[in-house]
Amino acid sequence: MTDRSVSEVIRTLSRWVLGIGLIGAGLGHLTWSRTEFQAQVPDWVPFSKDLVVVLSGVVELALGALLLVVPERRRPQLGLVVAAFFVAVFPGNISQFVTHTDAFGLNSDAERAIRLLFQPVLVGWAILSTRTPGRGPSATGASSASGRDSF
Fold first, then answer.
1. Best exposed site among 22, 89, 99, 130 by fewest CB in 10 Å?
2. H-assigned helices in the chain
3. CA-CA distance, 150 to 128, in Å (whole number)?
4. 77 inside domain
5. What is the pLDDT of residues 67-91, one digit of tens each?
6. Which phi and psi angles does 43 have, rounded to 5°?
């Protein structure tokens, strides 16, 4: 296997894992973890916590499914949408930390703080796993400094 084909396999597997993870999270929003997810909705959101959880679950299901099936030429745009979604829900994670709300086994401020650090990882994962081979995550199409595609 060439470096490029290994990179493509890693990128594809990463995209699939992210897609399946989003589908699982979306199902959790709609079923077994619905109450837990409500704990992350900040009080300042002007809609019912249950509505926010259900709508975000539907969005996660849709984004997860799209990550599995979208054509290659549309993946970079989808990656930016998924990344934007992760940014949009970040206030919920911050709220859980600031209000000291226990949920998902995050029962201390230290655990909730560590959880906050993973949101940028998800943003990067969304962008890197959907970029077009031979191109960077931006729309400019610049390749890596070595001229080879990397994950």
1. 99
2. 3-30, 34-38, 49-69, 75-98, 109-128
3. 9
4. yes
5. 999 999 999 999 999 999 999 999 9
6. -65, -25
